[in-house]
Amino acid sequence: MKKNIVLSIVGVLLIGGLSGYFYFTKNGAEEVQFRTEKVSRGDVQVVVTATGTLSAVRTVQVGSQVSGTLQKVNVDFNDKVKQGQIVAQIDPTFLEASVRDAEASLQRTTAQYGESKRSFERMKTLLDKNLASQADYDAALSQFESNDAARKQSVAQVERAKINLRYATIKSPIDGVVISRAVDVGQTVAASLSAPTLFTIANDLTKMQVQANVDEADIGKVEQEQDVTFTVDAYPEQTFRGKVRQVRLSPKVEQNVVNYTVIIDVPNPDLRLMPGMTATVTIQVTKKEAVLKIPTVALRFNPPEEYIEQRKDSSQSPGSGDDSARAERRKQWAERMQREGGNAGGDTQMMQRRTQSRGFNRVWVMNERKKLEPIMVRTGITDGTFTEVVRGKIVEGQEIIIGTIAQRSTSQQASSSPFNQQRQGGGGGGGGGMPRRF
């Protein structure tokens, strides 16, 4: 009886020990694996991206200054026109009648002018012989001057009527291509308040421009004569090139977002680009070729402290006095941050930002003891993915740490627990039970 009790107690303790072992093994510390990347050599360029719209360098909207019914439309979409070519004709019947009316009015005022002139000359002769009074002379002079002004006004009316008649014939002001036609034969044109647009003519489609909207955060990097590449949806696999011609000072505010218009000259010899296309623009600010570069993410990596190689004492290292002084300054800075409501993490991040603002950064490498050591480097330009290394004790092909991969070291052992075997349900394959997420 006692022997059975002892065996039962031993069995319970054994089962409890095994359960505790697997539990603490499963929930124990994680093994950290480091992601590495090799230092490479290549090109790094700083760019500004934006979107814009293609248009002709010179586009003219042809309208009408007189009202009437369109009698003829001589051009259509995509037609090439020359300067002075007749593109449309408004019915001139009413305008011709206005010219005849103005000419008749001029004839009447001219006759009145002649009569008043002869009367004034007779009155002047009588006044010289003292046969007429001064009042009669003044009245004749006033009538003569009034009729002279009426005659000049009639002359102006005739000229205005003739000009309106000429405006009924609409001509192209430039050489170009008709890209828009808004009217047709028989349509009435009303030009009472503003000149309606009848045609849109692009001067030369072999030379086009992109009006790109650049965000205010990037406009300071854009200058004239910078190289530009862009793509359009019509030809997604082809890259077009251009140059910045103008950075306009006038801002465009849309939904509290400030943009500036950048004009980019684009050659279009094969006429593949069309007005109105949307262009995805990349403006090249700076480019350096065949430079030493590292992944930008490596500059933001902060390793766990237990994996960092600890420096030796000052008695063992002749140059550790400077390190001790630096560590003391870091400690004082951390205490100051804590007094001001900061923390150690904020201290580290602030010091990193201060060094980065001066062009200095830190990368981590693994030594032969599987410990991490920092290397200070001076960085240059960056494209967001890679950063140029101007100076530092790293060489091409050297591996640097860019991140970590957390993986449980005893996951396979935990899956062999007798408690996990109950959840597997006898199924084949590896690793039954509840799936883990990493």
Total helical elements: 7
Strand order within the widest sheet? 2-11-14-13-12-15
User: What's the shape?
Assistant: elongated
Number of strands: 19
Largest sheet: 6 strands, antiparallel, barrel
Distance linking N and C termini: 51 Å
The rounded Rg comes to 45 Å
Helix fraction, binned, reads: 25-40%
How would you classify the helix and strand content by structural class?
A: alpha+beta
What is the total number of structural domains?
A: 4
Plain-language structure description:
Helix 2 runs antiparallel to helix 3 and helix 4 packs across helix 5 (344-357). The strands form 4 sheets. Strands 2-11-14-13-12-15 form a 6-stranded antiparallel barrel. A 4-stranded antiparallel beta sheet has the order 3-10-8-5, with no helix packed on it. Strands 7-6-4-9 form a 4-stranded antiparallel beta sheet. It has helices at 2-26, 93-128, 134-167, 320-339, 344-357, 411-415, 418-424, and strands at 31-38, 40-56, 59-63, 68-73, 80-81, 86-90, 169-171, 176-181, 188-189, 197-202, 207-215, 227-232, 235-254, 257-267, 278-295, 360-366, 372-382, 386-392, 399-407. It has 4 domains: 31-42 and 293-312 and 327-407, no CATH class; 48-57 and 201-288, Efflux pump adaptor protein, beta barrel domain (Elongation Factor Tu (Ef-tu), domain 3, Beta Barrel), CATH 2.40.30; 66-91 and 169-200, OB fold (Dihydrolipoamide Acetyltransferase, E2P) (Beta Barrel), CATH 2.40.50.100; 92-167, Orthogonal Bundle (Helix Hairpins). Residues 313-322, 340-346 and 408-438 have low confidence and may be disordered. By secondary structure, the protein is α+β, with helices and mostly antiparallel strands. It is elongated, with a radius of gyration of 45 Å.
